[in-house]
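TEACHING EXERCISE
Course module: macromolecular assemblies
Task: Read the component lines below, then compare them to the predicted structure of the full complex.
Student: A.B.
Group: 4
Components provided:
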Amino acid sequence: MAKLEYSLDQIDLQILRIMQDNARTNNADIARELGMAPSAILERVKKLEQKNVILQYNARINPAALDQKMLSFIFIKTQDIIGVQKVGLLLAEVPDVLEVHDIAGEDGYLIKVRTNDSAGLVDLMRNSLSKIEGIISTRTTIVLETVKEDNKLVIPSKEA
Amino acid sequence: MAKLEYSLDQIDLQILRIMQDNARTNNADIARELGMAPSAILERVKKLEQKNVILQYNARINPAALDQKMLSFIFIKTQDIIGVQKVGLLLAEVPDVLEVHDIAGEDGYLIKVRTNDSAGLVDLMRNSLSKIEGIISTRTTIVLETVKEDNKLVIPSKEA
DNA sequence: CTGTTAAATGAATATTATTCAGTTTTATGT
DNA sequence: ACATAAAACTGAATAATATTCATTTAACAG
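Instructor-supplied answer key:
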């Protein structure tokens, strides 16, 4: 039974909390904050990486700085359940597609897409999506303004 | 005219590319890779932070490790346009809400939510969403499986 | 108890970050 | 084109951090 595949103690959670907020916090600082030796923190962090608890460290970049002013969500309806796992993988390969989620209920996917502008979106739909077999229809929702987008998980105080 | 508020040259883009992939890449490594002095890289990175090109460095944590198995998107229809900016801010304050987007067309928001399980989702809707004034209705889409979720922007090779 | 394993410490060393003076490059006004 | 000012870069010196590892401590099963 792989019930607790990742058993995280209080210290691990604290490390995660710090790292989720600032992935560039150095070991020395974390060690100071938690009152431990830097070497101990280093070991734990490496273990968290190996156990795939920490998936990646990434810099969040301001989309506006790269002129990617347009954000959209697109619902994609697919043919049927059989042989459609491939659609998800193909969608994931499209560069402007940031997220691909297999959704319940309507045989399909919800994807999150960032483009320069509406022309870029049209372009993506014409040139990329239309080339993927198994897509029946799409419904696009355009984002006017993003209020929050940090994707930070809620880290509990206790964990079994 | 604030046309080029962030003018990024080729080197900046390379730095962003590296940092987006691994926010813990150290200056020395970046400097080696780009054939420049570490001090120059340091300066540029700091400037990118100050110019708000780099918004934050965060560790992406495996939701499964924190037992947050459930991901949902919820469309939220709001009363009207007047006085509804507040709804977005209130939504953003709910811990399990990872993203809040003001969407076009239907007077409302699309939010991304992560909960432990379906009970957690119900809980959120009953205890948090229902308390927010101005929400007329909600439509929830449940994610069965996430194929991609890296939120990495496409960084162009050239930029004016 | 005793042996075994996992985790932490603390010191030594390697590497990196950071500062800064001096130089080069770039941009700009004349 | 030229002079000048501002911005960016280099390289060396110093401060700080990362990393390694032998030893100690803690946790725990038999």
